[in-house]
Amino acid sequence: MGKSIMPTDRHLDYLKRSGDRYIDQRNYEENNHGFASWTIAGGKLLVLQVYGDGEYWDNYFRELAAKQGLGEYMFYTRRNPKAFARKYNASVVETLMSVKAKT
User: For residue range 15-42, what is the model confidence (pLDDT) as tens digits?
Assistant: First the structure.
């Protein structure tokens, strides 16, 4: 996880809503618009966590991807992907499936 930080109210809210266990510190950015972390893998800018003003972070990551010479950024959501597709002109790339183990 890298350096340890004291969780803020918005960190705690994010963790509760997302189900994540910690705030990822890779390329961590925090400001009055919220916070986000990201990495680059496989030639893509991958948004790991984001909380706050979605329009601000969309613009931030579009610009960051361009500065890194990348054509796009990607993110995962547990929320309604169709709503995110409409709002951010995004496309669904894959669907994550879950299968229960035998009991």
Answer: 998 889 999 998 999 999 999 999 999 8
